[in-house]
Amino acid sequence: MEEIIKQDKSKSHSEFENLLTKDLGNRKFKEGEVTAGTISQIGKKFIFIDLGLKSEGTIPIEEFKLTKELDKIKVGSKIEVLLEKIENKNGDMVISREKARKAQSWKKMENAFENKEEVEGVIVSRCKGGFIVEVESCLCFLPGSQVDLKPLKNYDHLIKTQQTFECIKLDKRRGNIVLSRRTIMERIRNKDRDKVISKMKEGDIVSGIVKNLTEWGAFIDLQGVDALLHITDISWDRISRPSELLSIGQTIKAKIIKIEEGTKKISLGVKQLNEDPYLKSIHNYEIGKNYPATITKVQDYGCFAKLEEGLEGLIHQSELSWTKKNINPGKILSTSQKIEVQILEKNIEKRRISLSYKNTLVNPWVKFTNDHKVGDETEGIIKNITDYGLFASIKDSELSGMIHYKDLSWSEKESELENYKKNQLIKFKIVEINQEKERVRLGIKQLAKDPFEFFMNKNLSDVVTVIVESSSKEGIFVHSGNKNLLLLIKKNQLAKEVENQRSSRFAKGNKVDAMIVGINKDKKKVTLSIKSLEEKLMKEQVEKYGSTDSGGILGDIFNLKPLLNKKIKK
Fold first, then answer.
1. Which fold has domain 457-569?
2. End-to-end alpha-carbon separation of the chain, Å?
3. What is the DSSP pairing of strand 475-479 with strand 487-490?
4. DSSP assignment letter at 160
5. Residues 6 or more apart from 283 whose CB is under 8 A from it?
6. What phi-psi label fits residue 264: left (phi over 0), alpha (psi between -120 and 50 degrees) or beta?
7. In DSSP terms, which residues pair with 180 in a beta bridge?
8. Cα torsion angle, 376, 379, 381, 385, sign
9. I need a surface site. Which of 95, 281, 362, 536 has the fewest CB within 10 A?
10. Which architecture characterizes domain 283-359 according to CATH?
11. CATH 2.40.50.140, applies to 116-186
């Protein structure tokens, strides 16, 4: 009997669980989802919600105070809540009204983001980089750059006021929502802009107000639509900045020169209201002729000169001076200076005129060529000293010339440069004039006679008389009368005599005879030998008088000495 009762109880319990599971399954209650319930009781601290489950859920009354719903609810009111847990460890159901509102708001924000719909919200406070906006219980971020079309100095009038926004970014994982008020304003502006632009077309002459000035142009307000007036379209004359002709708030007339498709950007032109003076006047000027002009602007690369109103040309740096190639144009010409220029080129397609200032002046190269010739002696001041020579001005001339170090002295040594200083007055000869390459070569050594001329009519085996200048271990240094050309007679080419006799014979100032054993007239090189001369004389004496064995070779040399000394005295 007891067993039958136990079986009946077990059967009843199992059936109850099945019915409860079936009922809950039909109700489709799931944790984390929003579900509807009925307010069954309003207490001092909690509000009880009946969801049709085995127990009621409770929500702190503070949640309803925060959402300002407390005065709107009563027992029996239907309300949506978020089911956090069907049963906690104490067997109670956990629900939340605030989280339900946030979940519903988040869903609405997702729809608004996907469909790019506008949402209403209130800017509640400032934060780093922007503002906090409340949209249906969702706290969203409004970047400072997305508040208005342009930066505002004061945002106080926007705080705590209802505004329209667009959701531009939504990160569900992080729970971040980014809003923009600027996109709403741009949309409104573009609608108005499209209406205004639809009434305009290219070529129309419109009136507008200068709204802003930059270095490269001006923004003009055309009935609330911004248009760009580029600096090159303000005037036919060249100007440095728009502020030279325009000022903010000024009303101007301009021509619509372009309306871009798609972006609807408008480009204006003021100079297009008048005829292009270039096309009007350019045919009055001929290439190669000189005309009066006024310098309007000086740049690093040249100067701009105005021929007449609206007609301007460029004098390139290379056309400013015949002699000063890399000088700053400002050191030659200045703004407002009146000069004469020559027309070099007219490019009607590019609206360019190339001018020359130096062509209106006397060409110093032509004048120098007419007034001077190669071989003229003159003087000048050393302007610069380099590793390879000197640069000196030329008296009574605008030109300068170069003196290569080989033209300083007939010795042609670089060390000669050490004898000269900057600003030193020197004399020189004109060695070369090259008008085509604009080059003058000068020489100092050419003022003196070429010491090699002594050897120009000499040949191999000729005997010359030279003067001893000095002696060294290598031999003796001699010259033909001009110390600018010292020749070394090497030790092995000296006379075959004893060492104590050499010192007296080859003392400084003594004259000795030597034979030319090597000569290159093109390179101006000559080699002398006393030994070869003595050998030649010895051979001649042997052939004339015969040979003896007395005294040997040394005796023969001493027998020749009176003859050599006699020749030297001559």
1. OB fold (Dihydrolipoamide Acetyltransferase, E2P) (2.40.50)
2. 176
3. antiparallel
4. T
5. none
6. left
7. 166
8. positive
9. 362
10. Beta Barrel (2.40)
11. yes
CA distance 288 to 322: 17
Q: Is 566 helix (H, G, I), strand (E, B) or coil?
A: helix
- Biggest alpha carbon distance in the chain? 180
Which of 172, 185, 177, 82 lies closest to 136 in space, CA to CA? Answer: 177
**Cβ atoms within 10 Å, residue 39:** 19
Intrachain domains 283-359 and 457-569 with the same fold? yes
Confidence (pLDDT) at 11: 54
Domain boundaries, the chain: 26-98, 116-186, 200-273, 283-359, 364-447, 457-569
CA distance 229 to 206: 12
CA 107/CA 115 separation, integer angstroms: 12
**What gap in Å lies between CA 252 and CA 211, rounded to an integer?**
11
Going by the DSSP 8-state scheme, the letter that residue 159 receives in this structure is: B
pLDDT of residue 219: 92
**Token pair of 28 as six digits:** 């489709």
* pTM for the model: 0.47
Phi-psi region of 212 (alpha: psi -120 to 50; beta: other; left: phi over 0): beta
The sign of the dihedral angle between the CA atoms of 57, 61, 67, 69 is positive
Residue 310 CB contacts under 8 Å (≥ 6 apart), including other chains? 236, 237, 276, 277, 278, 281
Torsion sign (Cα): 207, 210, 211, 213: positive
Residues pairing with 513 in the sheet: 465
CATH superfamily membership of 200-273: Nucleic acid-binding proteins (2.40.50.140)
C-alpha to C-alpha distances, 538 to 35, 247, 496, 529, 560, nearest whole angstrom? 142, 108, 12, 15, 7
d(CA 415, CA 140): 84
CA–CA separation, 132 and 127 (whole Å)? 7
Among 548, 569, 561, smallest CA distance to 497 is for: 561
The span from the CA of 405 to the CA of 426, in Å, is 14
- Tell me: domain 364-447, CATH 2.170.150.20, correct? no
Instruction: Say which CATH superfamily domain 26-98 falls into.
Output: Nucleic acid-binding proteins (2.40.50.140)
Q: In whole angstroms, what separates CA 329 from the centre of its chain?
A: 22
Using CA atoms, how far residue 67 sits from 72, 82, 108, 137, 492, in Å, is 11, 15, 18, 8, 123
Is the C-alpha dihedral spanning 231, 234, 238, 243 positive or negative?
A: negative
How far is the C-alpha of 198 from the C-alpha of 179, rounded, in Å?
31
- Environment class of 45 (CB within 10 Å of its CB; exposed 0-12, middle 13-18, buried 19+): exposed
Tell me how far CA of residue 198 lies from CA of 139, 190, 254, 270, in angstroms.
Answer: 40, 12, 18, 22
Q: Which residues of the chain have pLDDT under 70?
A: 1-32, 34, 53-55, 65-68, 82, 84, 86-87, 89-91, 98, 496-503, 546-570
Enclosing H/E stretch for 384? strand 377-385
- Cβ atoms 102, 138 nearer than 8 A: yes
- Identify whether the C-beta of residue 193 lies closer than 8 Å to the C-beta of residue 222: no
Rounded to whole angstroms, the Cα distance separating 309 from 329 reads 23
